[in-house]
DNA sequence: AACTCTGGATGGACCGCCAC
DNA sequence: GTGGCGGTCCATCCAGAGTT
């Protein structure tokens, strides 16, 4: 397929929704925030009472007004697409379009104009995987197995689409199988084969290791499902995506949590999206008590959210651990 | 500088599911 | 049974970084 022949595919729409249109009148939306927004949008349909309030509660740091404006801007853009105008993912500015007549013409004609060779297309360089993302990938791989990239993407590597996860997995397994068959290998993120085990020697102990890319921009926010790795004792870090929190933090609580430094702040508390994950069913009640104590000990003394327990008795299937915040 | 390697993105083939 | 659709796998492209 030529690059100029761009169908309105689901992946296109997804990338459109995932991108952060730099609308000047709005505050910046990160990919992560867009993902939260997208998930909340899917969860609360048009008939949901107080829809935008509920969506706002799922997107930390955004006001209801910002949510409404963001929604309206997306609706405008989607209508723009539906009308036959395809906005390229980079959201080039009007000025840029006006300076590139060919570019503009190809857009206005639908998609296919001139159809230069695909090699001439601007194939955007992707964002390198971070070590954290790779660790989450390994956790997801352990949990769902090879092939269920969708689940891994949805429940572990939230910052990557299933296609991206699959692509990453492809390289990972190629790397895995090629180990030893070639004389030399550069160290890469794919040399991390298990959670925790390799990261230290590879990243910090090996002075030859260099990041794949220059230090990536700091992630907009930690994964919604996974608390910081150093929050838990090593023996428990292997798979601990907190799946449910029974009481989503209130706005005031969230402000407090936002002020709490990692690892006791936002990451562990914003996992209240209700998606069940049986990943915690290996842990005993004692483990949960330990986590509660660890968690409570990390909270500042003046936080109103000073009592937390991990409850593995709810719901009845015992596969869901719920962190009670009061 | 030229070559090699890495890794994200992408297109196409293939497969399974589902509605008709 | 068949066609459409969605998803996955695999091969490939290619920019960028590392190596010689």
From TrEMBL:
One of its GO terms (molecular function) is DNA binding. Residues 102-125 are annotated as: Disordered. Residues 128-173 form the Myb-like domain. The keyword Magnesium does not apply. Keywords: DNA-binding, Nucleus, Transcription, Transcription regulation. PROSITE patterns: HTH_MYB, MYB_LIKE, SANT. Gene3D superfamilies: Homeodomain-like (1.10.10.60). It holds the Pfam family Myb_DNA-binding. It is found in: Nucleus. This is Uncharacterized protein. The lineage of its organism: Eukaryota, Viridiplantae, Streptophyta, Embryophyta, Tracheophyta.
């Amino acid at each position: 397929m030529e690059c100029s022949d761009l169908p309105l595919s689901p992946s296109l729409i997804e990338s459109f929704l995932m991108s952060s249109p730099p609308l000047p009148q709005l505050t910046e939306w990160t990919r992560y925030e867009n993902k939260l927004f997208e998930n909340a949008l899917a969860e609360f349909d048009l008939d949901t009472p107080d829809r935008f309030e509920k969506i706002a509660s799922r997107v930390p740091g955004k006001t209801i007004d910002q949510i409404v404006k963001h929604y309206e801007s997306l609706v405008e853009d989607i209508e723009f697409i539906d009308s036959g105008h395809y906005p390229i993912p980079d959201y080039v500015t009007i000025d840029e379009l006006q300076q590139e007549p060919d570019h503009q013409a190809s857009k206005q004609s639908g998609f296919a104009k001139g159809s230069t060779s695909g090699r001439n297309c601007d194939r955007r360089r992707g964002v390198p995987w971070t070590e954290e993302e790779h660790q989450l990938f390994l956790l997801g791989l352990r949990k769902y197995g090879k092939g269920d990239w969708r689940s891994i993407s949805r429940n572990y590597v939230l910052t990557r689409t299933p296609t991206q996860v699959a692509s990453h997995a492809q390289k990972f397994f190629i790397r895995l199988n090629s180990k030893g068959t070639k004389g030399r290998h550069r160290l890469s993120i794919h040399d991390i084969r298990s959670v925790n085990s390799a990261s230290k020697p590879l990243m910090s102990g090996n002075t030859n290791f260099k990041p794949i890319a220059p230090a990536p921009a700091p992630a907009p926010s930690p994964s919604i499902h996974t608390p910081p790795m150093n929050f838990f004792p090593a023996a428990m870090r292997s798979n601990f995506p907190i799946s449910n929190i029974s009481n989503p933090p209130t706005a005031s609580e969230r402000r407090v949590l936002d002020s709490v430094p990692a690892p006791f702040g936002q990451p562990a508390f914003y996992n209240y999206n209700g998606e069940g994950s049986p990943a915690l069913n290996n842990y005993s009640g004692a483990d949960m008590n330990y986590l509660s104590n660890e968690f409570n000990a990390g909270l500042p003394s003046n936080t109103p959210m000073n009592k937390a327990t991990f409850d593995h008795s709810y719901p009845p299937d015992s596969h869901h651990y719920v962190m009670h915040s009061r």
